[in-house]
Amino acid sequence: MIFKFLFLPIVGAIIGWITNLLAIKLIFRPYEPIKIPLLNFEIQGLLPKRSKELAKKIGEVVERDLLPKEELERELSGLEVKDDIKVAILSIIDQKAEEKIPPFIPDNFKVMIINFLKEMVNKDLDPYLDQLMDRAKDKILNETDLARLVETRVSTFEMRELEELVLQIAAKELKHIEVLGAILGFLVGIGQAVIVMNF
């Protein structure tokens, strides 16, 4: 009697678990479309089939919501690179002047010449660097198609790697979905068993 009553819930649990397991697998697999003969029908994983559309949407979301141009402009404006560029330029002047000044010139004169050059360049460098930074910022903001860039990067991502990544990150949650399928199948099976036993 108990075996008869538990038979349908156990079968329901197995079916529910397998169904959810297959549903998870079908998100990624098969990677390439498989044609079913005579039915004019093909099977392909959800993400591989919609990969181009997915890449496009991710690019749009990144540009619109995650990193809009206003945010990017704010980040670029906050970059403190001008001083680093100045240090690099003055260091190059130091090095090149040391190489180019003839060796017969005494060292103390060399130091004076190099310091004079560096001071002169340093004094007039700020406006040029400001212009350079503004031009670079404008170029990045106006000529960089962030959505397209992200779309290209995402579309070159191997589906197998994406599957492994998702399974690593969400392994626990996906396992819960499988177990939930088994529990729901078991409960449906109990309902069916009650109906069968009483009618």
TrEMBL record:
<keyword id="KW-1133">Transmembrane helix</keyword>
<dbReference type="Pfam" id="PF04286">
    <property type="entry name" value="DUF445"/>
</dbReference>
<dbReference type="GO" id="GO:0012505">
    <property type="term" value="C:endomembrane system"/>
</dbReference>
<dbReference type="InterPro" id="IPR007383">
    <property type="entry name" value="DUF445"/>
</dbReference>
<feature type="transmembrane region" description="Helical">
    <location>
        <begin position="6"/>
        <end position="28"/>
    </location>
</feature>
<keyword id="KW-0472">Membrane</keyword>
<protein>
    <submittedName>
        <fullName>Uncharacterized protein DUF445</fullName>
    </submittedName>
</protein>
<comment type="similarity">
    <text>Belongs to the UPF0754 family.</text>
</comment>
<feature type="transmembrane region" description="Helical">
    <location>
        <begin position="177"/>
        <end position="197"/>
    </location>
</feature>
<keyword id="KW-0812">Transmembrane</keyword>
